[in-house]
Structure to design on (371 residues):
């Protein structure tokens, strides 16, 4: 079975569409990778696969191999380059600042991992989006074909050894969910009574407003009925902090997910605010920048006014600040980095670091104690 190389499986569920399940799945995967864990993403949202676009891999295709499909590699296990203005935390919460010195070489002359230069885990992904001719291709399938596709993803993908497989699901409690639950509960249970099953449980995603929470409650009830453990609730889109003035606005209210978690007696993992720079990262591939960087980028594109220190040389096409050409060169180099490297600059990265550490502790405790 293709899941033999998988240690832990975590479902990302919600009874409501548009709450950001795919975004949460992607950021959980990036955070786990930064913590040194090897990760896989399985996208079973068959009619609306978003994972390829979020990972910047819309042109990637699945490779057929003897015995099954090979997942698409997002990035290999590697040592990330230095980023001096980022403070990182490891999976146990130990904080360390990135310095300015490269890691010492190992005995073979290659850079060796250190606490300031941690080695990240590999990330792979599989999605129906990798099999479609284009982004606009529609998937018009009835229930039985969806069920067969989900089971094929669970049995025919040749995953490398990975610590966590995150499964991004469509909204609701439809055929895909029932097929997924049945297959995983039947095939991944371990015979030893002292060991937890590979299916660690589910992360439930909601937004704060009542209309979303009322639908997500159904997903919690679904988990209880089919016997899937709920690892916790994430309240997504909980507030927006203005990048210009820093004022926080609760666009969709606040606290609905936490109240729901308390009512159902499950853990509340945290709130995730709206961050426009996360959209810049996944839509445009640019490293997130805040504060003065935002103002500088805006000045570069504004040809109506010249700010202090700017001058016009050959017309609006060459409008720039002092040293801007050097800054642009640096920005281009930063933007060419891999997704997980650029994600370290996102304001959501430390938030997901905290969520990831909670998940890690829950899953590992359950795995050891078998409860």
């Amino acid at each position: 079975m293709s899941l033999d190389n998988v240690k832990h499986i975590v479902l990302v569920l919600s009874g409501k569409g548009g709450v950001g399940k795919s975004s949460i799945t992607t950021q959980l995967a990036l955070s786990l990778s930064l913590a040194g864990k090897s990760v896989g993403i399985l996208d079973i949202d068959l009619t609306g696969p978003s994972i390829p676009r979020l990972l910047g891999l819309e042109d990637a295709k699945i490779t057929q191999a003897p015995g099954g499909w090979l997942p698409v590699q997002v990035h290999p296990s590697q040592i990330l380059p230095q980023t001096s203005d980022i403070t990182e935390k490891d999976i146990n919460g130990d904080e360390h600042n990135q310095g300015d010195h490269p890691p010492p070489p190992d005995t073979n002359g290659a850079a060796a991992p250190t606490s300031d230069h941690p080695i990240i885990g590999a990330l792979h992904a599989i999605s129906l989006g990798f099999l479609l001719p284009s982004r606009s291709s529609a998937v018009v399938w009835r229930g039985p074909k969806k069920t067969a596709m989900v089971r094929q993803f669970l049995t025919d993908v040749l995953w490398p050894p990975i610590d966590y497989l995150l499964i991004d699901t469509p909204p609701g409690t439809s055929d895909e969910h029932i097929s997924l639950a049945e297959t995983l509960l039947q095939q991944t249970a371990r015979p030893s009574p002292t060991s937890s099953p590979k299916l660690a449980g589910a992360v439930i995603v909601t937004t704060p407003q009542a209309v979303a929470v009322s639908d997500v409650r159904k997903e919690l009830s679904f988990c209880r009925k089919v016997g899937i453990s709920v690892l916790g609730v994430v309240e997504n889109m909980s507030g927006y902090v203005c990048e210009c003035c820093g004022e926080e606005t609760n666009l969709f209210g606040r606290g609905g997910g936490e109240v729901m978690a308390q009512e159902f007696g499950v853990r509340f993992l945290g709130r995730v605010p709206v961050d426009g720079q996360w959209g810049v990262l996944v839509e445009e591939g640019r490293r997130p920048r805040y504060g003065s960087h935002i103002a500088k980028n805006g000045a570069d594109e504004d040809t109506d006014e010249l700010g202090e220190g700017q001058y016009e040389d050959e017309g609006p096409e060459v409008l720039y600040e002092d040293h801007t050409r050097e800054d642009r060169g640096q920005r281009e180099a930063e933007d060419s980095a891999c997704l997980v490297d650029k994600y370290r600059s996102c304001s959501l990265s430390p938030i997901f670091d905290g969520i990831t550490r909670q998940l890690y502790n829950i899953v590992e405790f359950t795995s050891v104690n078998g409860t």
